[in-house]
Write a structure and sequence with these properties.
The complex is a heterodimer. By secondary structure, chain A is mostly helical. Chain A has helices at about 1-15, 65-85, 90-95, 105-135, 145-155, and strands spanning about 30-35, 60. Helix content of chain A is about 50%, strand content about 5%. Chain A has a two-stranded antiparallel sheet with strand order 1-2. The longest helix of chain A has 30 residues, at about 105-135. The chains are: A mainly alpha, B mainly alpha.
C-alpha cells in the first residue's frame, strides 16, 4: 500500500526540482572511493603499508538517479509524516546521513510561478488596455446622472 | 497548485472582462468620479483634523508630547493628506497613480499608458521567467491603481487576490538581479503562499456550507445537478452535461467532505 502510494505522492509533489538545477551547482561527488594498488577496494593483499594518495581518489560520476532517489525518499518521509504513514522504504539513518542530496531550492518552481503570474498579468493588462477607456474612461454614459446624484448627496 | 490557481484566475479574468464587451469610447463609470469623491472626502477629513488640532492646542497646549506633535505634523503632511485622507466609500485609502494626473478630465492617456507599462513589465517577466522587486512593485502599483478607481469592474474577488499574491511575490524575488537562479527561495514565502491558497480553497468550501441555499443543506444536496444543467460560461462539452441523467453526486456524508475537499486539494498540490 505504502509502496504504491508513495510514487503517487512524489508525482503529485514533484519533489525532484533540485536535481533539475544540479548543472547550476557544483555537484558534490556521491562517494570518494580510495583504491589500493590493485584497484580493488576490498583487497586483502599484502600491501598493508600502502598509504592512499590523492591521485588514488577516483571521482565516481555523479549518480543522478541515486541522488534523486535519495531526495525522493526524503520527501517521502516528510509527506508520510504529514499523512502519518510510517515509511517502510527509508530508515531514519538513511535520511539523516544523506548529505549528498542538495536541498530543495524551489528555483524551478519560482520560474514557473513567475511565468504563470506573468501570463495572468499579460491577460489582465491587455484586456485593461482595450476596455479601461470604455469602462472607466473620461466620457461616461452616466456622468450627468452621477453628477446630479453627487450634488444631491452633498447638499444633504 | 500555483499553476492551477494562476490559470483559473487568468481564465476568470478573461471571461469576466470579455463579458462586458464594451469597446466604446464612453466609460460607464469614469475613474474621475471616484477620484473626485475621494478628494472631497480627503478635504473634509483634513479640515476636521485641523479644527480638532486647533481646539486641542488651545486647551492642552502644554500637555502634548513630542510624539503627539510629530504625529500631528505627519498627519497634516501633504502627501499623507493625499494618500491617507482621500478614501473610498468604505473609508479605505485609495492608493492610485492617477492622483498624479494633472487634468482629471483627461485620464484616458493615463489609463492607456499604465496598461502599456504593465504589459511591458509582464512581457519581460514572461519571457525571462525571472523578476526583481522593482518589476513586481511596478506591476503591483499599476494593478492597485486600476483596482482603486475601477469601481464595480475591479470589485471582484480575484483583484485583491491577485494583489495579495503579487505582494507575496515581492519577497520571492531578488532585489535587483534578474537571474532566475538567484539563490534559493525563502521558505517563509512559500508557506505564506501555501496558506494563501489554503485560505482561498477553505473559504470556497466553507461558503457553501454556510450558505442559506437549501441545495447545499443535508438531505437535499442537489447543487451539482443545477450546476451541470445551467453552466454560466458554456463550452463544447456543456450540452452533454446538460443532457446527462441526474445523478446525485453529493450525499449527506459527503457534505462534510465538500467544505474540506478544497483545502485537502490545496494541501496535496501546494507542496509543488
Amino acid at each position: 500500500m505504502v509502496k504504491i502510494s508513495l510514487p503517487v505522492i512524489i508525482f503529485i509533489t514533484g519533489s525532484s526540482n533540485a536535481q533539475a538545477f544540479s548543472f547550476q551547482r557544483e555537484m558534490i561527488p556521491f562517494r570518494k572511493m580510495t583504491l589500493c594498488k590493485h584497484g580493488d577496494n576490498r583487497c586483502l593483499g599484502t600491501h598493508s603499508l600502502y598509504a592512499p594518495q590523492r591521485s588514488d581518489t577516483v571521482k565516481i560520476p555523479t549518480m543522478e538517479h541515486h541522488t534523486e532517489m535519495k531526495q525522493n525518499i526524503k520527501s517521502m518521509a516528510y509527506i508520510s509524516l504529514l499523512l502519518a504513514i510510517k515509511p517502510s522504504v527509508a530508515t531514519a539513518s538513511d535520511i539523516i546521513t544523506s548529505q549528498t542530496t542538495t536541498a530543495s531550492t524551489y528555483q524551478l518552481s519560482r520560474i514557473l510561478f513567475l511565468r504563470l503570474l506573468a501570463i495572468v498579468y499579460t491577460a489582465a493588462f491587455s484586456v485593461a488596455k482595450f476596455q479601461n477607456k470604455g469602462l472607466i474612461g473620461d466620457n461616461g454614459e452616466f456622468v450627468q446622472q452621477y453628477v446630479v446624484l453627487c450634488l444631491c448627496i452633498f447638499k444633504l | 497548485m500555483t499553476m492551477v490557481s494562476s490559470f483559473s484566475s487568468m481564465l476568470s479574468c478573461v471571461y469576466v472582462y470579455l463579458n462586458y464587451d464594451s469597446h466604446t469610447d464612453t466609460g460607464i463609470l469614469p475613474a474621475r468620479n471616484v477620484l473626485n469623491d475621494a478628494e472631497n472626502r480627503g478635504i473634509a477629513k483634513a479640515k476636521r483634523r485641523k479644527e480638532w488640532l486647533l481646539e486641542d492646542s488651545k486647551a492642552y497646549q502644554s500637555k502634548f508630547s513630542c510624539i503627539d506633535k510629530c504625529k500631528n505634523y505627519f498627519m497634516t503632511y501633504k502627501p499623507i493628506e493625499h494618500f491617507w485622507h482621500r478614501t473610498d466609500r468604505m473609508n479605505r485609502p485609495l492608493p492610485t497613480l492617477l492622483w498624479f494626473a494633472r487634468d482629471r478630465n483627461q485620464l484616458n492617456p493615463w489609463l492607456d499608458n499604465l496598461a502599456n507599462v504593465g504589459l511591458f513589465l509582464s512581457t519581460i517577466m514572461l519571457a525571462t521567467g525571472s523578476a526583481n522587486v522593482l518589476l513586481i512593485a511596478g506591476l503591483y502599483v499599476i494593478q492597485r491603481s486600476f483596482m482603486s478607481v475601477g469601481a464595480e469592474f475591479y470589485g471582484y474577488g480575484w483583484e485583491p487576490q491577485l494583489a495579495e499574491l503579487t505582494f507575496h511575490t515581492l519577497f520571492l524575488v531578488p532585489l535587483l538581479s534578474m537571474n532566475p537562479f538567484f539563490e534559493s527561495v525563502p521558505k517563509l514565502v512559500i508557506w505564506a503562499i501555501r496558506f494563501y491558497l489554503f485560505k482561498i480553497m477553505m473559504g470556497a468550501g466553507l461558503i457553501k456550507a454556510k450558505s442559506s441555499d437549501v441545495k447545499w443543506k443535508p438531505g437535499n444536496l442537489s447543487a451539482m445537478e443545477y450546476h451541470y444543467e445551467t453552466q454560466p460560461v458554456p463550452n463544447g462539452l456543456s450540452k452533454y452535461f446538460h443532457k446527462a441523467p441526474k445523478v446525485r453526486v453529493l450525499n449527506d456524508t459527503s457534505l462534510y467532505v465538500v467544505c474540506f475537499s478544497h483545502s485537502l486539494e490545496s494541501l496535496g498540490l501546494a507542496s509543488f
